[in-house]
Design goal:
CATH superfamily of the largest domain: 2-enoyl-CoA Hydratase, Chain A, domain 1
CATH architecture of the largest domain: Alpha-Beta Complex
Distance between the termini: 37 Å
Helix content: 40-55%
CATH topology of the largest domain: 2-enoyl-CoA Hydratase, Chain A, domain 1
Number of domains: 3
Strand content: 5-15%
Shape: globular
Number of helices: 30
CATH class of the largest domain: Alpha Beta
Oligomer: single chain
């Protein structure tokens, strides 16, 4: 079946309509690109055409980009894939060049998401028009896959809007909406989606009029955009300014990527190399840069592509098996019980997604703090110009406060976010059940306490479920959906759907102490403390783990979370799992000594603004230093393999069934380095047999906590990997 349809009216206005059969989105596969080339040749031979409109027949989607599945298939092959990569890129470059060279003007009508190759194709058109459809967004996300835009994106975009404006889009993969695209002059016009036919007809009349056409083209000034014309000219209009641009960009890339991600650095090299070069020569350099990146850094690209597909699978997964005709009940009103930092953050999230939320606490001071927490997040968004003051005001009005349960009867979902105390939670949940409607979903934001135990005191335990947000709510993408023993399938499906509506990533996990992420992470945090206890230099430990790729070392993270909070969770896990999660005694003494972390200005580090220095006051809580010869490699092994061991146990116990979902949870919940592909992908890359051998050595030196679990030993014996499960 054809992916494209050509229509030509009596006035010479042609439409090339993209509608990929059997798919929800339009994307460029090898076959689709070949067909596009054929259609362009057909259009070229039609002398009656005066203008071509490139459009999509799919709602909310223009073109999603290249078929990443074909890239993954190429990467999974053994041997040298340079020729296959060359064929893939050359096919797209040549096709878009043919589009660009058509003997009549072309207009990309972008009414929905326009990503990657879709944006690159639109850049090859003479004009671009965007609609104000809520799903209209533009971006070049290739860098997120470890590659670069190879179909002209690195060459045409800077030529269109200027280097300073183009670099942030190419280097970060960030999406922009229709208004920003028009402001940057990527788009020549922005029109109302409701009147797309009429407005496009007006635009066509304009570009077919020489005087009016010149007016549109004159607005494309590459010295304008995010900055003023003078500032942009000074930055990229002369050799010295150009060097400043690239120097600052490289500095920013290194700070963000720590040098672990080759794609943004390769993009910078390419942009610098081709700056001022002709399009023809620039495209050749772009092709060579793409091939070099894919072949030289294949493992990183494979890891990031793997994460892309796992994330996509989670987005499509409803968490349980339900009938095909099942429809998830809508969530139109919400409530949050407990207005602390987390409660306020959760209330903010509901309001941000335009779901009215009732925020309850025991006194008005508590409610006020919840409002302040929400307002603080909105202030940041306003400062970054993500929202206007009027929008912030409207969204804040979605939050209302109360000291009683008034308004809870109309709530479709209630999130409990009170103190982490099982007895108090049980009492409150029993009370809450009588104050909500019979079909309301009740969730707990607990980070470690048993959902099944809380269910035991409820009249309708089937509608109770864990909804574990990670702090800070506005930044952390993961939400653990915890199923208790009596939680119904309907409750799981409803919560998974809600989490997606809130813009978060839901991972369904079983009920156990610490659930999934904290259960896996805490042993590694303990291991950092053991290393310190054994005489290793604290800052050296943090730097080593940071260099491995974690967003921060164990002590920096402990201070960020709050030593008291971390200690409390760690003790709960020690109680549940015994010696393998024993918390070093000195940590309790530090907490008792009032060193609680960044929130108090003092913890393991002394915090002043953005700077931190080791807190010498911690020394008195530590045992006498021992001489040690622990290598950095061993530090990493101890830190990571404790996580691998606990992750394997979680698979054994069916806390989670898919290794890929576990890896995504650790990436989104802890920042485990994506370039490693995830915790279990990393173990597979090292080799499970090697992991087990190293752990046996560590067990002899440091005790039973390093003894490999049965699943690890079984995989090693059979020479299998986690992803063989």
């Amino acid at each position: 079946m054809s992916a494209f349809k050509i229509e030509v009216n009596d006035n010479g206005v042609a439409k090339l309509i993209f509608d990929l059969p059997g798919e929800k989105v339009n994307k460029f596969s090898k076959d689709v690109m070949i067909e596009l080339g054929e259609k362009i040749a057909e259009l070229k031979s039609n002398t009656s055409i005066k203008v071509l409109l490139v459009m999509s027949a799919k709602e909310g989607i223009f073109i999603a980009g290249a078929d990443v599945g074909e890239i993954q298939e190429m990467l999974n092959k053994e041997g040298d894939q340079s020729q296959e990569a060359r064929d893939l890129i050359t096919r797209g470059v040549n096709t878009f060049t043919e589009l660009e060279n058509l003997p009549f003007p072309t207009v990309a009508v972008i009414n929905g998401a326009c990503m990657g190759g879709g944006l690159e194709m639109s850049l090859a058109c003479t004009y671009r028009v965007v609609t104000d459809h809520k799903k209209t967004s533009l971006g070049l996300p290739e860098v997120m896959l470890g590659i670069l835009p190879g179909w002209g994106g690195t060459q045409r975009l800077p030529k269109l809007i200027g280097l300073v404006n183009a670099m942030p889009l190419i280097l970060t993969g960030k999406k922009i909406d229709a208004k920003k695209a028009f402001k940057l002059k990527i788009a020549d016009a922005i029109i109302a989606a409701e009147f797309i036919d009429e407005k496009i007809a007006e635009f066509v009349d304009t570009i077919l009029d020489d005087k009016k056409k010149k007016k549109i083209l004159s607005k494309r000034n590459t010295t304008k955009g995010f900055m003023g014309a003078t500032q942009n000219f000074l930055l990229e209009g002369n050799p010295l300014g150009k060097n400043v641009v690239f120097s600052k960009a490289r500095e920013g890339v290194m700070k963000a990527s720590k040098g672990h991600y080759p794609a943004p650095l390769a993009i910078l090299d390419l942009l610098q190399d081709t700056y001022g070069m002709s399009l023809k020569d620039g495209l050749k350099r772009e092709t060579e840069a793409f091939i070099k990146l894919v072949t030289t850094h294949k493992s990183v690209v494979k890891s990031l592509v793997h994460i892309f597909f796992t994330d996509d699978a989670v987005k499509k997964d409803i968490g349980v098996k339900m009938p095909d005709d099942y429809k998830v009940p809508a969530v139109n009103h919400s409530a949050v019980l407990g207005a602390g930092v987390m409660g306020g953050g959760i209330a903010w999230l509901f309001s941000y997604k335009d779901i009215p939320v009732r925020l309850k606490d025991v006194n008005w001071d508590g409610v006020s703090k919840g409002f302040e927490a929400a307002q603080d997040i909105y202030k940041v968004l306003q400062k970054k110009r993500k929202l206007k003051p009027t929008q912030v005001n409207m969204k804040m009005h979605k939050i209302s406060g109360a000291l009683d349960y008034s308004g809870f009867k109309s709530s479709d979902v209630v999130v409990e976010a009170i103190v982490e105390n099982m007895g108090i939670k049980k009492t409150v949940l029993q009370e809450l059940e009588g104050e909500v409607s019979n079909d309301a979903l009740i969730c707990s934001n607990t980070s470690a306490l048993s959902i099944s135990e809380m269910q035991s005191v409820m009249k309708h335990p089937e509608r109770f479920i864990g909804m574990h947000f990670f702090n800070p709510v506005n930044r952390m993408p993961l939400v653990e959906v915890i199923r208790g023993e009596k939680t119904s399938d309907e409750s799981v499906a409803k919560l998974v759907s809600l989490v997606k509506k809130l813009g978060k990533t839901p991972i369904v996990v079983g009920d156990c102490a610490g659930f999934l992420v904290n259960r896996i992470l805490i042993p590694s945090m303990n291991e950092g403390m053991y290393l310190l206890e054994e005489g290793c230099d604290l800052e050296e430990i943090d730097k080593t783990i940071y260099k491995f790729g974690m967003p921060m070392g164990p002590f920096t993270l402990a201070d960020e979370v709050g030593l008291d909070v971390g200690y409390k969770v760690a003790k709960l896990l020690e109680e549940a799992y015994g010696d393998r999660m024993r918390v070093p005694e000195f940590l309790g003494k530090i907490v008792e000594g009032g060193l609680l972390g960044k929130k108090m200005g003092k913890g393991i580090y002394i915090h002043k603004g953005k700077s931190r220095t080791f807190n010498e006051g911690v020394q008195k809580f530590l045992p006498a230093k021992k001489s040690n010869s622990i290598t950095k490699e061993e530090m990493v092994d101890r830190f990571v393999f404790t996580m691998v061991n606990e992750a394997a146990r979680c698979l054994e116990e069916k806390v989670i069934e898919k290794p890929a979902y576990l890896d995504l949870a650790m990436i989104y919940g802890t920042g485990f380095p994506p370039f490693h592909g995830g915790l279990l992908k990393y173990a597979d890359s090292v080799g499970v047999t090697n992991v087990v051998e190293k752990m046996n050595v560590l067990a002899q030196k440091y005790g039973k906590r390093f003894e490999p679990c049965e699943l690890l030993k079984s995989l090693a014996k059979d020479n299998k990997s986690f992803y063989d499960l």
